[in-house]
Amino acid sequence: MAFSADELRVLRRALAIALHPMPLSDEDVQDCLRLAGSVDEAVGEAGRLRAFLLADLARYRAALPGSATGYLELLQDALAAGYDPRPDDLAALRALRGKPLAAALLERCQILAERSVRARLAGRSAALVAPGPRSRLLALPGGRAADREPERPKAPAAPAPAPGRSPAPGPRPAPKPSEVFPPRRRPAPPPSEEERAAG
């Protein structure tokens, strides 16, 4: 999962607040809520991608042996994402073990399947499952300072314009790209042989 620079700033701020609780401004609370929403969305998207990968893997497995290359590639991707090989996968790999990649994957899948069975027998699941949706973030420690408005610096009042004069223009608008970067002029073609001889 990758974070933007703004999300990293919010994450750093949230971690600092978690370590040293202090009152938060409304803007900080909203930033944290937006970050939590983005993380939830990314986790949901990862779950959808995983479900798509597993459905694709099942389709390729059903189309074997014609889809052997695609199946082996998808199985490698699924294993890298934490997929626990099923008995169908082991049977398919045994049928394809004439290919070097299938033989290597069969060995890897047998090890993973054995670990999974031992873990289940020990009473814990070895399968990596994406966490379910978490409850909404309702409050942060040291959150809003008891409905107190944060003190904001007051801007100095602008002087009233003199009667009969138009008010002074506001801040200058951002310049257009054509004002900052004027269009390039095409270079003039070099003079021809006759113009050089005459000139």
What attributes characterize this protein structure?
199 residues, mainly alpha, flat
| Count of helix runs | 7
Helix/strand order: HHHHHHH
Say how many strands there are.
Answer: 0
State the distance separating the first and last CA atoms.
67 Å
Structural classification: mainly alpha
Major pleated sheet: none
> So what's the overall shape?
flat
Q: In percent, how helical is the residue content?
A: 40-55%
Strand content: under 5%
Q: Which residue ranges are poorly predicted, with pLDDT under 50 across at least 5 consecutive positions?
A: 126-132
Radius of gyration: 32 Å
Mean pLDDT: 76
Topology:
Elements: H1 5-19, H2 26-62, H3 68-80, H4 87-95, H5 100-121, H6 177-180, H7 193-198
Helix pairs in contact: 1-2, 2-3, 3-5, 4-5
Question: Explain this structure to me?
Answer:
This protein is mainly α and 199 residues long. Helices cover 53% and strands 0% of the residues. The longest helix is centred in the N-terminal third of the chain and has 37 residues, at 26-62.
Give a brief outline of the structure:
With 199 residues, the chain is mostly helical.
